[in-house]
Amino acid sequence: MNDEQVIENAGHYYRNDNKQIYLPQHVNCPNEIYDLMLECWNRTECERPSFREIQMFLQRKNMGYNPKDEKMNQIKVPIC
């Protein structure tokens, strides 16, 4: 896309008195993550989280996470 096409395409996300239209929350997306996404999409730059704030949020969200635990939960044992 050229510059004009990018601007035109981005303009489709703002309608109805400059209210931003957001992507919908995916069914598997936790509310806390979607809320962070909405904050990042804020049209006003000073109201968006900093990279440090995003990093801290994700670190807190990830505390205690062990991918091995998730794999164990996905294993289905046949019941006879």
Automatic annotation (TrEMBL):
Residues 18-57 form the Serine-threonine/tyrosine-protein kinase catalytic domain. GO terms for molecular function: protein kinase activity. It holds the Pfam family PK_Tyr_Ser-Thr. It comes from the Eukaryota. InterPro entries: Kinase-like_dom_sf, Ser-Thr/Tyr_kinase_cat_dom. This is Serine-threonine/tyrosine-protein kinase catalytic domain-containing protein.
